[in-house]
Amino acid sequence: KLNVGVDTVQHGVEGLTYLLTESSKLMISEIDFQDSINVLGFSDELNKLLLQLYLEHRREIRTILGELAPKLPSYHSLEWRLDVQLASRSLRQQIKPAVTIKLHLNQNEDQTAQVLQTDPSTLLHLIQQLEQALGEMKTNHCRRIVRNMK
């Protein structure tokens, strides 16, 4: 009926979907949305129609995107134990430390436990990396990204 190829229609629908989902994710204002679609070269009537479509459905799109997001496990509690092997049959003066961690997680109202074991030096390195990541969250650049994700 449209006298155009299947690929043209498919790319048009994908482009419209991308425009609406990204605009809804960022909750951009009417003016920003209009500026975004003015570049596309559509007629004023079509631009007004797209703006109306965006304003009517942005909350619903955000709700659907929130439901599609993966449900990751969340922290519940942590148990740990330090084991030290002081000697063995072949080595009488041996010190071999190991840290055992039992991590309790909640996922979809179910509790699971993961048991991890590592040596203290690897655990210290992991702690340093996590502290560095937390420090990165305090930078202005990261705060802007997180604010735009909400």
From TrEMBL:
Give the COMM domain ranges: 74-141
- One Pfam family it belongs to: COMM_domain
Give the organism, scientific name.
Nyctibius bracteatus (Rufous potoo)
Q: Provide the protein name.
A: COMD2 protein
Q: Which gene codes for it?
A: Commd2
User: What PROSITE patterns is this protein classified in?
Assistant: COMM
Cross-referenced InterPro entries, in alphabetical order? COMM, Commd2
